[in-house]
């Protein structure tokens, strides 16, 4: 009996010291920030653009010309990112809430002139802000213009950008999603420089801000992913796009699938090789003369997606020949990426990290001037093994019958 009363006493005491929902936040008191754009004006002050979700408009699912905007955008000026957030209280009646912020947009001008070294400290320090937030560069425009765009299909524009990046990474391989934690890691690493995907505005940027624009089959002011921004010491120095960009993705083992078009017997882009998986391993060593040497080994597997010329792909020798041509194409793209990076003197490929792992003692001597002296002189060997796994539901193309 005494034990029972003692247990009840402990329970009552425990209940009395419980804090309850002390940290609860009512939705009606919060402004949910879905995206932030960061620019700098002529006076040298930061211009932060906040894309805030209107929960009622997103959930309502209204259709037609009277449809309300799913987001509201505010632009605030201050001496730093934290000040702009505090200054926002002059215009926004609710407290800015960053736990749902999925996107940070940085203008190309700011990234080139000042760099991005100072931008992420406030975000990394804030307990609400997630370092898994996606970062992009606003190419040939301001970050404010990108954040102001309304998008079709996806109601919240920030979600459209992120899903476009994810889709492109999975299906094309030329671009990939970069998060705040990735940028910070590359900035502080002595053997790697950051790369960040860029977006530009296709069409009339002013019309892209209006809800009426979304009533068209082809809306103006569409956000399109375009190029990978190359950084050195925190500043944007060049852009990679096309084959060199995909070559860099191969080296970084970021390509999940893609389409590789190859020439065949005088016909350009005659065969579409659908890459379904790849794996790249990069190793480094120091030669006897002290010059770093890097080996890149890529293994690719794919299917025949399209034939523009009559080929008997039931012939094993024909498939073997296709594999050799694909190997040369991937090797070419990888070498193009290496040449561009060495020309820019920016180790976006992480070769310095591999040298560090291979020879920590030698790396101590090299890391101070790695980008300028040692990285451009690094000897790179590329080996590619490509395989055709399937040819689709047809072995022989109908083009073969037409030729006969």
UniProtKB/TrEMBL annotation:
In its keyword annotation, does this UniProt entry include S-adenosyl-L-methionine?
A: no
Signal sequence residues = none
All copies of domain Spore germination GerAC-like C-terminal, residue ranges: 226-392
Keyword annotations from UniProtKB, A to Z: Germination, Lipoprotein, Membrane, Palmitate, Signal
Entry's localization field: Membrane
Domain Spore germination protein N-terminal, chain residue ranges per copy:
24-196
Q: Which domain of life is it from?
A: Bacteria
Recorded topology in the membrane? Lipid-anchor
Q: InterPro entries per the record? A: GerAC_N (IPR057336), Spore_GerAC-like (IPR008844), Spore_GerAC-like_C (IPR046953), Spore_GerAC_C_sf (IPR038501)
| Pfam families, alphabetized | Spore_GerAC, Spore_GerAC_N
Please give the PANTHER family that the UniProt record associates with this protein.
SPORE GERMINATION PROTEIN B3
Query: Which family does the record assign?
Result: Belongs to the GerABKC lipoprotein family.
The entry's protein name is Ger(X)C family spore germination protein
Taxonomic classification: Bacteria, Bacillati, Bacillota, Bacilli, Bacillales
